[in-house]
């Protein structure tokens, strides 16, 4: 097992690590669905159609289609939530954050939420944090990540 990329350098990119971990979790969810015999009928039919009815090949295509379907569901759900949430004021966000053990800071147009209720919060390794230029995103993230 190697922790090196193709150029023999360590890959410490947080963005890529987050993407890889999210992808792993989605594949795990798909594996569980398949183990339980759950398949989206429309996606399964599309996969079989793309593979001329070859069910073995269709399973691999189905997995990729289901992966994209899950990503689409997450994106559409987040967009719906953002629309339904409306405009959150900075005061409402601050109250929401404080209620959940977070503090709000701003820097160069970015909002930052940092969990401070953790006694080890002085150590960034034990501190949940999230940044965005939209306070609605911060509000949703804190709501979905309580008590980190």
Any low-confidence stretches, pLDDT <50, length ≥5?
A: none
Q: Which value, in Å, is the CA radius of gyration?
A: 20 Å
The order of strands across the largest sheet is 1-2-3
Helix content: 55-70%
Strand content: 5-15%
State the end-to-end CA separation: 31 Å
Largest sheet: 3 strands, antiparallel
- Please give the number of β-strands: 3
Mean pLDDT: 78
**Overall spatial form:** elongated
Taken in chain order, the helices and strands follow as HHHHEEEH
Q: Please give the domain count.
A: 2
Quickly count the helices.
5
**Helix/strand-derived class?**
mainly alpha
Model description:
With 148 residues, the chain is mainly α. The chain has two domains: 14-85, no CATH class; 90-144, no CATH class. The protein is 56% helix and 11% strand. It is built from five helices and three strands. It has helices at residues 14-35, 41-50, 55-85, 90-99, 135-144, and strands at residues 102-107, 110-115, 129-132. Strands 1-2-3 form a three-stranded antiparallel sheet, covered by helices on one side. The protein is elongated and about 55 Å long. The mean pLDDT is 78.
What attributes does this structure have?
3-stranded antiparallel sheet; 148 residues; 56% helix; 3 strands; 11% strand; mainly alpha; 2 domains; 5 helices
Q: What would you say about this model in short?
A:
The protein contains 5 helices and 3 strands, in the order ααααβββα.
């Amino acid at each position: 097992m190697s922790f090196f990329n193709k150029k023999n350098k360590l890959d410490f990119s947080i963005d890529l690590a987050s993407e890889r971990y999210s992808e792993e979790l989605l594949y795990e969810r798909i594996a569980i669905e398949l183990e339980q015999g759950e398949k989206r009928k429309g996606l399964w039919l599309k996969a079989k159609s793309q593979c001329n009815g070859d069910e073995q090949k269709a399973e691999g295509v189905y997995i990729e289609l289901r992966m994209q379907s899950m990503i689409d569901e997450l994106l559409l759900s987040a967009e719906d939530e953002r629309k339904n949430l409306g405009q959150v004021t900075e005061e409402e966000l601050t109250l929401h954050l404080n209620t959940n053990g977070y503090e709000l800071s701003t820097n160069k147009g970015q909002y930052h939420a940092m969990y401070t209720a953790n006694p080890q919060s002085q150590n960034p390794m034990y501190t949940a944090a999230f940044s965005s230029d939209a306070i609605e995103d911060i509000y949703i993230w804190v709501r979905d990540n309580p008590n980190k």
